[in-house]
Design goal:
The mean pLDDT is 87. The longest helix has 15 residues, at 91-105. The protein has two domains: 1-109, Gcn5-related N-acetyltransferase (GNAT) (Aminopeptidase, 3-Layer(aba) Sandwich); 110-156, no CATH class. The chain is built from five helices and seven strands. It is globular and about 40 Å long. Strands 1-2-3-4-5-7-6 form a seven-stranded mixed sheet, with helices on both faces. The termini are far apart. Helices cover 31% and strands 33% of the residues. It is α+β, with helices and mostly antiparallel strands and 156 residues long.
């Protein structure tokens, strides 16, 4: 069956529990609650873009993004996740480029920004460079002391 991309907030709100379970399964050290997700999904001032990929009814991919609340016009890529069983089929690419198209059409942000841990740098820096992310720099530390790296690219 061909995967189905769903990119509307209304549809995502109906499956918030499933999204939280999917996220928490793949990020056990960074658990999110339903209330955390819901507060970001319905906050129109940060213009969330939430996209899931489903095979039949099961979520196999998730993209989450919203504007930073500092009026900088920067769109934060919060989550780009594909179930390991479905990697290697360019689903991550499709998630990002669909979101980029939505942000561009809605004139929702001028730059994408993303953060990742130093322990993930060897994998994530080349991965996101494929999408045009550049300007890598240190931007602080996570609560466990690990260095936080930042990359950016223009929306569109």
């Amino acid at each position: 069956m061909e995967p189905q991309f769903i990119a509307t907030i209304k549809n995502q709100l109906e499956s918030i529990q499933e999204i939280v379970r999917f996220y928490n399964k793949h990020f056990p050290e960074s658990q999110h609650s339903e209330s955390y997700k819901l507060s970001n999904y319905i906050n129109n001032s940060i213009k969330p873009i939430i996209i899931t990929i489903r095979v039949e009814t099961k979520i196999i991919g998730l993209f989450e993004s919203w504007l930073k609340d500092d009026n900088s016009g920067t769109r934060k890529l919060v989550t780009l996740l594909v179930d390991p069983k479905f990697r290697g089929h360019k689903f991550g690419d499709r998630l990002f480029f669909n979101a980029n198209e939505i942000a561009h059409k809605e004139q929702s942000g001028s730059y994408w920004i993303l953060h990742f841990r130093d322990s993930n740098r060897a994998f994530l820096e080349p991965y996101y460079s494929r999408f045009g992310f550049k300007e890598i720099c240190l931007s602080g530390n996570y609560t466990n002391g690990e260095q936080k790296w930042e990359m950016r690219r223009r929306v569109g």
